[in-house]
Specification:
By secondary structure, the chain is an all-alpha fold. The protein contains 17 helices and no strands. It has 2 domains: 183 residues, Growth Hormone, Chain: A, CATH 1.20.1250.20; 192 residues, MFS general substrate transporter like domains (Growth Hormone, Chain: A).
Length: 385
């Protein structure tokens, strides 16, 4: 099954190579789409992805994880062709609809393949490498864009099509893991999987903690960071350099496993929740460039190290053969919380940017408390066995 790991790493690298990433908004505007239309398309895409999560999870458990990845990789390739040729609202909406189908299909299936391919051994290290390969692809694409592509938007779109086409071809080299994992027991009905997942209060605590911590990072480092940089007087060039620095930090996921081994689960959770909360407090309290940059990059590295740890724990706590279905239910729970936090972040940032950062600190503290409660319950359950 080691071949699966290498194939998935290569797919992550190639699908990370979005050559139009640095000018994604400008690309769309050049093709006649307004900023409002972009946000509307994103909202439609997110809603559709949430609706498709569970149906895709059920389908993946029935048809197998290999076929799901092959289909989604092929559809991903098609979506990039649509993006490359798109003009106007309708074309880019069609691309995002295809992308919603792909993201819902990939959700939980990619990590299931990785987890089952390594038989749960060193899975945190595997997830860390997988995430790092995606960021390496993004960094490589940004470098190629800066040196060779520049203002040639069409070339950026075409190179992305080529990269995703290669990823689709590579997916054919995967070996099925679902049948071997479930041959010993009959398939569990969806209703039983749903009841088992929603009835696990310990898991729900874990998912809520994950949602708060992840969304604080996502919203601040993707959307609010640029507003904070402008607030601190940084130039566009400096912001570009910081984008590259943040991308490089995103490649450090392979460090997650040794750090967890050294610190232990509880300390690891508390440390990175605490770091994220402190970073948000600094961002809310400062208008000076250096502490603002430190705060943003601290959020970035804490999330980079946390995500492989989260993926490992999530997969370990699943007690059903319908792994993709369970992970899809998890994703729906996390996304529903994300919708609420995003609305609050948006409203607060329109009113006062520091207030949004202080809200981020608050949900990071909530995450810390939820992780503490989850760890206590999880430890008690293990001792009772």
């Amino acid at each position: 099954m080691k071949k699966n790991l290498y194939v998935m790493y290569a797919i992550a690298l190639l699908q990370g190579m979005v050559f139009y990433g640095p000018i994604a908004t400008l690309y769309r505007q050049a093709q006649g789409v307004t900023v409002f239309q972009i946000t509307l398309i994103e909202g439609i895409s997110l809603g559709l992805a949430i609706l498709l999560e569970i149906p895709w999870g059920i389908a993946a458990d029935k048809i197998g994880y290999r076929k799901t990845i092959i289909f989604c990789s092929g559809l991903y390739f098609v979506s990039k062709i649509v993006f490359w040729k798109a003009t106007g609202f309708g074309g880019f909406l069609a691309e995002r609809i295809l992308l919603s189908v792909v993201e819902a299909g990939f959700s939980g299936v990619d990590t299931s393949i990785l987890y089952l391919s390594c038989q749960g051994k060193n899975s945190q290290k595997v997830f860390g490498i997988y995430n790092s390969m995606s960021m390496a692809g993004l960094l490589l694409a940004a470098a190629v864009f800066s040196v060779f592509v520049r203002d040639n938007y069409s070339l950026a779109g075409f190179l992305t099509v080529v990269s995703y086409g290669l990823a689709a071809l590579l997916s054919l080299g995967l070996t099925e893991v679902k049948q071997a994992a479930s041959a010993a027991a009959p398939a569990e009905p969806f209703r039983a999987t749903l009841h088992r997942t929603l009835g696990n209060r310990t898991m729900l605590l874990f998912l809520a903690a994950v949602a708060f911590l992840t969304e604080a990072h996502q919203t601040i480092t993707v959307f609010l960071n640029q507003l904070q940089y402008e607030r601190c007087g940084l130039s566009s060039t400096a912001i570009g350099v910081l984008y590259i620095a943040a991308t490089v930090l995103g490649m450090l996921g392979f460090c997650s496993a040794p750090l967890t081994k050294r610190m232990g689960t509880r300390v690891f959770c508390l440390l990175f929740c605490g770091l994220a909360a402190a970073a948000c407090l600094v961002l809310g309290a400062t208008q000076t460039a250096f502490p603002a940059v430190v705060g943003i990059l601290t959020l970035r590295i804490s999330n980079t190290l946390f995500q492989p740890f989260r993926a490992q724990l999530q997969n370990r706590q699943i007690q059903t053969e319908n792994r993709a279905t369970a992970l899809s239910i998890h994703a729906m729970i996390v996304n529903c919380i994300a919708i609420a936090t995003n609305l609050i972040f948006g409203a607060l940032s329109d009113w006062s940017l520091p207030a949004a950062f202080f809200f981020g600190a608050g949900i990071c503290v909530c995450s810390l408390l939820l992780f503490s409660l989850w760890h206590k319950r999880n430890l008690s359950a293990e001792q009772a066995r």
